[in-house]
Amino acid sequence: MKLGRVVATVVSTIASPIFEGRTLLLCDLVDERGELSGGYLIAVDTVGAGAGELVLILDEGNSARQIVGEKTGPLRTVVVGIVDDVELGEPGRSAGAAG
Amino acid sequence: MQLARVIGTVVATIKAPGLEGVRLLIVQPLTRELTATGSPVVAADAVHMAGPAEVVYIVGAREAAEAMEDRFVPVDHAIVGIVDAVNPIRGDRQ
User: Fold this and answer.
1) Distance from CA of A42 to the nearest CA of B (A)
2) How far apart (Å, rounded) are the C-alpha atoms in residues A13 and A28?
3) CB contacts, 8 Å: B59 with chain A
C-alpha cells in the first residue's frame, strides 16, 4: 500500500461499468513524512475520504475488487483508509522523541 | 490509474488472437496538471468512445485485460474512462 494525499476528484460520465456510482479521487503520492514523492494515482474511494486527507492507497487488482465486492472488472486502485498519524522510528515512540 | 491524452491511433491488421476489433490508441500519460509526462503507450479503448485529444484515464497491468469484453486478451494498458473534469478540492493541509 502507498500513502497519498487527496487533491482532486475526477468526474467521468463514460467509464467501465465497475466505476459507475463510485467516486474517483486523484491522490498525490507522498512519503512517510507527508512530503510529495512525485507522481499520483487515481483511486476509487471506499472510505469517504476527501479534502486534503492523508490516505492509504491499495494498488493491486484482486484485493481492490474484493473490497468493492466485484469478481471482475478493470479496478486496481482504491483508497482503503484514512491515516490518523504516521509514527517513525521505534514502534510506540513518536518521530520527534529523542533517546 | 493515470490520466492520459489520446494522441493517435494504431492500425494493425495482423494481431494476436483476441485483439480483433479492439481499438488501439496511442495515449500520452499526463501529470495531474495535464502536462505530458513519460513516454506514450498504446492502450486498448475499453470504453469504445475515446476520441482524438480527449483526456482519459488508463489502467495498466492485468487490470487492463479485465476491461475488455474477453478478459483473456494480450492487453497491458486500457482506457477505462473519459475524463469530464478534474476538480481540485481544498483541504486544510494543502
Assistant:
1) 5
2) 23
3) 74-77
Residue ranges and CATH numbers for the domains of chain B are: 2-82 (2.40.50.220)
> Within 13 Å, how many C-alpha atoms sit on residue A69's CB side?
2
Supply the pTM of this predicted model.
0.88
Q: Does A36 touch chain B (CB under 8 A)?
A: no
The domains of chain A, with CATH numbers, are 2-82 (2.40.50.220)
Round to whole Å and give the CA distance between A79 and B17. Answer: 35
Asked if A64 and A24 touch (Cβ cutoff 8 Å), the reply is: no
- ipTM score over 0.90, yes or no: no
For A68-89, what is each residue's pLDDT tens digit?
Answer: 999 999 999 999 999 999 998 8
